[in-house]
Amino acid sequence: MSSAGPRPRVVLGVSGGIAAYKACELLRRFTESGHDVTVVPTAAALEFVGAPTWAALSGKPVSAEVWTGVHEVPHVRLGQTADLVVVAPATADLLAKAAHGLADDLLTNTLLTARCPVVLAPAMHTEMWEHPATTANVATLRSRGVLVIEPAEGRLTGADTGKGRLPDPEEIFEVARDVLGRSTSATPGGPADLAGRHVVVSAGGTRERLDPVRFLGNRSSGRQGYALARAAAARGAEVTLVAANVALTDPAGVKVVHVESTAELRDAVLSAAATADAVVMAAAPADFRPTAQSETKIKKADDGSAPSITLQQNPDILKEISTHRVHPGAVIVGFAAETGDATGSVLDLARAKLARKGCDLLVVNDVSGGAVFGSTDNEAVILGADGSAVDVPHGSKSALAHLIWDQVVARLAPSSPQYTS
């Protein structure tokens, strides 16, 4: 982060759940990246992590009471001056109070006075998350423009396992930073621009099995697809991410379906696309697969000869979902990694691909010399079926992701049912 200008002011709320200790890592990420953080725990949160820990990590005094430093009117000032409020973990009790406008401590007062984006990261047992009261409270908060991140699935308190686990602090930080960087997309008083939408994103590169130890694959890292999924979640969407052979942490608030082959990718995308308002095919499916797979490892020949492998073409997933749109009005986005050849330039080939596939948008990457793959940065041209072309200069994959979603939002039907899960 640049040292120029004031540091972004973040209020980190912590409510009383066992996951409160994980907020220490979230706090560390905010402070180390140059944010000015004020920690506001509830009294219950202080039973899990004491005030001295929060004070030492934030460099600021910590209190849960509205009466501490009352001459500075903290119950109003904190919310008024914050650039972002994040609550992690957000318990069922905290969600209920926030939805109903209760204000019986410093954190709930801060939530009422905040005029900045608010991000809540719930953590609770599955039964509490799925209770109709919690479902209604979450729907109410989302309708007001609050970003309520979907909890993760996994080990909970004791031996219990299910949905309700606090997402990884690193991923909460990435979503929060995304929201902070695009605060106009999540201002109170109205939902974010993808709120109520279901979007599907594919990421990574598929692998086609040759034998038990070898496969045909490609160099796609999945970073751009993950950036797209994270950006969509930050803009309020319900996100299904179909990930092919990706070694990345699952984004916070995103349903992730892990696959290996192109056939598995196709099945997962088609299933999720049936209810999707938009599908972004950022994955790199293998174009071909072996006609036969060896059940044993293919051995080297003593005479130095190489085995012959016969290939067959894989299904064209992008063309299939573009041609047969199960969800009316869905926006379909494809990616083209091109190098140009004797038949045409990168853009010539991309425009031909856009027409051939039938999608609404095509994000074109020039991958000459292996550019883009595995990098944290990207540059592209976003081509539209309507003849538009948006040049995206070199920058982060997150920035490109938001520009892609800008183009998608501009093409979405006016309304879509709110999701509540």
Automatic annotation (TrEMBL):
This protein's cofactor list reads:
Mg(2+); FMN
E.C. number(s) listed in UniProt: 4.1.1.36, 6.3.2.5
The record's Pfam families line, in alphabetical order, gives: DFP (PF04127), Flavoprotein (PF02441)
Q: Which domain of life is it from?
A: Bacteria
| Biochemical pathway | Cofactor biosynthesis; coenzyme A biosynthesis; CoA from (R)-pantothenate: step 3/5; Cofactor biosynthesis; coenzyme A biosynthesis; CoA from (R)-pantothenate: step 2/5
Q: Which InterPro entries match?
A: CoaB-like_sf, CoaBC, DNA/pantothenate-metab_flavo_C, Flavin_trans-like, Flavoprotein
Q: Where is this region: Phosphopantothenate--cysteine ligase?
A: 199-421
**Cofactor remark from the record:** Binds 1 FMN per subunit.
* Reaction catalyzed: (R)-4'-phosphopantothenate + L-cysteine + CTP = N-[(R)-4-phosphopantothenoyl]-L-cysteine + CMP + diphosphate + H(+); N-[(R)-4-phosphopantothenoyl]-L-cysteine + H(+) = (R)-4'-phosphopantetheine + CO2
Q: Which UniProt keywords apply?
A: Decarboxylase, Flavoprotein, FMN, Ligase, Lyase, Magnesium, Metal-binding, Multifunctional enzyme
Q: Domain (Flavoprotein): give its ranges.
A: 9-179
Question: Where does this protein hold CTP?
Answer: 287, 297, 315-318, 335, 353, 357
Keyword Acyltransferase in record? no
Q: Which family is this sequence assigned to?
A: In the N-terminal section; belongs to the HFCD (homo-oligomeric flavin containing Cys decarboxylase) superfamily. In the C-terminal section; belongs to the PPC synthetase family.
Q: This chain belongs to which protein, by name?
A: Coenzyme A biosynthesis bifunctional protein CoaBC
Organism of derivation: Nocardioides aromaticivorans
Question: What is the gene name?
Answer: coaBC
